[in-house]
Amino acid sequence: MNSTPVSSSDYPASSSFESLPLPPALLTNLDQLGYRQMTSIQAQSLPLILERRDLIAQAKTGSGKTAAFGIGMLARLNPNWFAIQGLVLCPTRELADQVANELRRLARFADNIKVLTLCGGAPMRPQIASLEHGAHIVVGTPGRIRDHISRQTIDLSTVQMLVLDEADRMTDMGFYEEISGIASACPTRRQTLLFSATYPDDIRRASAEFLQQPAEVKVEAQH
Ligand code: ADP
Ligand code: MG
């Protein structure tokens, strides 16, 4: 369980979610979830994400990165278009489940947004059945998503936003080629967000290959 609480030092002075151009129902839901102030990484990244910029964001664990991309993704999602509009890649099944649960909480303002997880280690057949039913957002691990692409059981041609979460861990685990294949299956005209705790050479290479003129934000670790 990743429930590291956000510490007070993670909040910049006065940055309410209300200052962002977000749908009112989403703002109400954030308030109900107890999200009143943006964390530093949210305050730095959300205005850029909402402008549809590609982005590299570097911040430590527990700084609220999921809601940063989650709110950005939900703000541009069309619930009436039942197609995969958002794709989030995570290094492990556990992290994918956490991200999917957070997205479902954030998506409560609309009653029909479907978030599907697709991870390795789970049987293929129910995943294929779920894909046939459709989803607005898919969260998964690179190997399994790549597998669905090879079997032609997933259509990523409608993806508007691709998120590489914990990108440094994914490249450490050897997922670079899978990520590359997945990015190629998404439209070239899409928004791509890369979240990472560190910025090694693999991430530099990934950003050059998968992102277009990305903005960069970084929140230094507090001591
Ligand atoms: P990270 O991905 O940076 O490690 P998470 O996205 O998992 O961090 O967030 C850590 C915790 O902080 C989660 O429990 C999340 O619900 C909570 N959280 C995120 N943003 C806010 C906020 N603006 N206000 C209050 N809690 C928040
Ligand atoms: Mg995270």
From TrEMBL:
Transmembrane segments: none
Coiled coil, from the record: none
Start and end residues of each Helicase ATP-binding domain: 46-217
Domain DEAD-box RNA helicase Q: 15-43
Q motif (motif): residue ranges: 15-43
GO MF annotation terms: hydrolase activity; RNA helicase activity
Superkingdom of this protein's organism: Bacteria
Entry keyword set: ATP-binding, Helicase, Hydrolase, Nucleotide-binding
Keyword Ribonucleoprotein: no
Record-stated family: Belongs to the DEAD box helicase family.
Protein name as it appears in the record: ATP-dependent RNA helicase DbpA
